[in-house]
Records
---
Amino acid sequence: MQRRGFEEQMGKLVTENRELEWAKERLQHQRETVAKQHAESVDSVEKKFQAKMKSIEEEKGKCEASVEIKDKEINSLKAELKSAQVLRSLFCVLLSFLGLEGDAPVRPDTVRDKPLSPR
């Protein structure tokens, strides 16, 4: 009788051992599958990140070029303004010299008709 109980217990242990081996194999397979999926996911995220960084770098380059162009335009406009201010000053001096000072608009034909007389 003990022998039969021992054989039953051995049979149960063998069955349990087999089931544990199968469970171990399933878990190893799941682990490998998850590791593969993780690696693929990381690769995908890395590629997307690199593409986004490239896009941002290109946009940064465009913005820097735009800023450079705008700076040149601003400097050009400053130079034009300075030239216009110098011309205005010279024109005011000329009007003063010709005796045409005032707020009234000056027509070119009135400037030619006035005789040049020093003050």
Note: Helices lie at 2-98, 108-113.
---
Amino acid sequence: AVARACKEQGFAQFDKVLVSPYIRAQQTWQEISAYFSAKSIETCEDITPYGQSEHVFDFASALIEVEQLDSLLFVSHLPLVGYLT
């Protein structure tokens, strides 16, 4: 439902998607990829539930700057995503 609503609001394509290596996140991306497209999709070992939020934030910030991304989607887990918001 959230993916469909995002698509309806114009959030249908991302420059890059980073997906946790954990099975549930991989399955989630498989399901929501029907609603979203991405120029680049990568599995990222650092975005697991207990990844270091400061490190992930710094990595994402650098990635956005270096690759000049307009949009970046994380497919990850709590509690990490809670710390990043």
Note: The chain has four helices and three strands.
